[in-house]
Structures are given as structure tokens and as C-alpha cells.
Amino acid sequence: MARQLLMVNGSGPAGCRTLGKALKRARDGAVISAKPGSCAENLVITARVSIVGDGPRSSIEIAPRSGAALTLTADTVMVTNFVLKDGERDLPVVDAVCGHVARDGCELVDSGCAAVLSRSTGSLALPRCRITSTPPPRRPG
Fold this sequence. Notes:
The chain is mostly beta strands. It has one domain (5-132): Single-stranded right-handed beta-helix, Pectin lyase-like (Pectate Lyase C-like), CATH 2.160.20. Helices cover 5% and strands 45% of the residues. The mean pLDDT is 89.
């Protein structure tokens, strides 16, 4: 059986408008390729997939308005070549609830408590990734 390939911002039968829609269509083993742009979705990954940014890392961003950028409940996930930002100071950028997530060549930007959270049976690998923390502005007083 051929591996499923989904293209975000692509056309044709494999094209999807958003990463969220691609994740809903993805079967275990799928590869999701995303063109440069910004995604304001909170992505919940439930299938064993690889998500690959098709362009320079700084041109492909997952930055929700609130909440974690990625919540992982699949047993194995690979995310490559993205900038991931948190949308809320009290939540992590990536929340690995269970399974194993590897991010390769990504940048995680945190403005609050933690860039990554591994809990329950979740585990993380971060080769060639950069994690930065931007403290929230101080309140006067």
C-alpha cells in the first residue's frame, strides 16, 4: 500500500486548505507537507504521521491565538522544519500526552511556563531544534 501524501496549501486530490484539515484526513503513516505560511490552529495529532515544512524554517509557523500549538496523542509523530509558538502563557507550546514525538530542525518559542510538556506516557526528542523563551511584559506596580 502506498504512503498517503497530503499537501497543505496544495491543489488536486491531495490538497488541503489547513494543517487541521490534513490531520483529519491523515491515516497512520501519512506524510503531510506544508507550504510556507502561518497556521493559527491548535493542532491535535491522533494518527502516526510525519509533518514536514516545505521551505525555510522561518517561513512556516504554527502559532495559535490561545492554547498549545501541538497536542500529541498518537504513538509516533515526526514534525520537521516549523516554528511553533504558544498561544497562552500558562500552557506549553507542545503537549505530549502519550506516544513519542520527534521534532527535527524546529524552533519552539515560549512566552510562559514551558516550551514542552511530556506527561503520562509521552516522550520527546528534539534534534537540531532551538527553544527560546520570551518572558511576558512586566506589569506596572
